Amino acid sequence: MSTSIVPLLVKKDFRLMRPFILSFSLVSLVSIGIVFLLHGRIPDWVLMNIGFLLLIGPAATCGIVLLIKTNVFEKEKSTQAFIMSLPVTVKEFTRAKLLFNLPVFGVFWLVISAVAFYLAFGLGLFPQGAVPFITMVFLGVFVAYTCILSTSLLFQSLGVTVLSILIFELGTSAYLWTIAFLDPISRHVYGQAMVWNSTAIAIVAIQVTVAVSMVLTTLHVQNTKRDFI
Questions:
Q1: Which residues of 136-155 are buried (b: 16+ CB within 10 A; e: fewer)?
Q2: Looking at residue 39, what DSSP letter applies?
Q3: In whole angstroms, what is the distance from residue 94 CA to residue 116 CA?
Q4: What's the CA dihedral at 178, 179, 182, 184 to 10 degrees?
Q5: pLDDT tens-digit profile of 25-73?
Q6: Fewest CB atoms less than 10 Å from the CB: which of 78, 162, 164, 171?
Q7: Helix axes 131-155, 44-67, angle to 10 degrees
Q8: Which residues share a beta bridge with 39?
């Protein structure tokens, strides 16, 4: 079995999804432009709320649309049955899906995170003490995405995937609000210096661990499946 099959599968998904990726990229650029145009014209607290929605909305929507189309709809439309009739193992199939979806969303996530940090701290909307918490917020977005992506691959069910979107979105909001009220975090949020204490470092480490664990678990479980189609 040639090792080139994984890049070929990734290339196939990229070519099919390229119109969606370009469309959401354009929407993201327009949203970023709107946020910068609004700066100085509306109160900072309003800009913070509107800006977060404008930045995260297109990226999150793109990630969800792509994983549903490549992981869920592909099975429902029997495309997956054809792919698996080729000399492709379940592990290779899963790796290809991860190598397509994670980098595409990852690029969106890195761009919006960089823009958000520039708006928040470069333009002075937040004090430096909020850096650890804002880092947790954007890591939380990425962790939620990896959990939804893993669910879509493991179950390949539209109903289960949609349910996971609801659960992980609500769960992410709940635990981030809980973190915001933890004394080691809340006491420094409005400070002028960022403080990476043991609590902040532990939370970030847990978030990174969960994201990596979800990907590794997905690869392991998929590789043990016998009835994949």
A1: bbbbbbbbbbbbbbbbbbbb
A2: B
A3: 32
A4: 180
A5: 999 999 999 999 999 889 988 898 899 999 999 999 999 999 999 988 8
A6: 78
A7: 20
A8: 42
